[in-house]
TrEMBL record:
Chief location category: cytoplasm
Gene designation per UniProt: tsaE
Family named by the database record: Belongs to the TsaE family.
Protein name, as recorded: tRNA threonylcarbamoyladenosine biosynthesis protein TsaE
UniProt keyword list: ATP-binding, Cytoplasm, Magnesium, Metal-binding, Nucleotide-binding, tRNA processing
Subcellular location: Cytoplasm
InterPro entries attached to this UniProt entry: P-loop_NTPase (IPR027417), T6A_TsaE (IPR003442)
NCBIfam families per record: T6A_YjeE
Organism of origin: Paenibacillus filicis
Length: 158
């Protein structure tokens, strides 16, 4: 499976990655985020929400598990499954989100890996010291593979 890299020097550059990706999003987009605490999963989620035209404040959904927002064209479903047991996750009916009308972003997605759809874009975020962050994007299936190739041609990913 090919993967792609993006280095953000600061939060603004994290926002540029989010914007580049969000321009391609459609109904049923699934983003699976992982990375240590403080890596920037929520910050990246906030940038995605902003790019989708969400005007509400997007907070970390650690305690609420799932929050739904209205974007300009697409709803945005923001999840944090860190505190969820496998059974609880099962009961949430995640497929209704994954195969729904909106864009779903899951923080700590690898914890519920078996519940994720086979087609998705996995994003692993690593702290690079200071404000720099390294994003590793691994697309599984379409349209995600196509998107990554396109963004590589555009020079956003490498
Ligand atoms: N380039 C960057 N990308 C993302 N977050 C950054 C960046 N530079 C600094 N930060 C800061 O790092 C912190 C990341 O925290 P958060 O997004 O809550 O992490 P996580 O959700 O992965 O635990 C935030 O305070 C954010 O402002
Ligand atoms: Mg978070």
């Amino acid at each position: 499976m090919s993967s792609y890299e993006y280095i953000a020097a600061d939060l603004t550059e994290t926002g540029k990655l989010a914007a580049g990706l969000a321009s391609l999003f459609g109904p049923g987009t699934v983003l699976a985020l992982d990375g240590d605490l403080g890596a920037g999963k929520t910050a990246f989620s906030q940038a995605v929400a902003r790019s989708l035209g969400v005007s509400d404040v997007v907070n970390s959904p650690t305690f609420t598990i799932i929050k739904e927002y209205e974007g300009a064209e697409l709803p945005f479903y923001h999840m944090d499954v860190y505190r969820l047991s496998a059974d609880e996750a099962d009961e949430l009916g995640l497929d209704d989100y994954f195969y729904g009308e909106g864009v779903t972003l899951i923080e700590w997605a690898s914890l519920v890996e078996e519940l994720l759809p086979p087609e998705r874009l996995s994003v692993y975020i690593e702290h690079g010291g200071g404000d720099s962050r390294r994003f590793r994007l691994t697309p599984a299936g379409e349209p995600y593979s196509q998107w990554c190739m396109q963004l590589k041609e555009n020079g956003l990913l490498r």
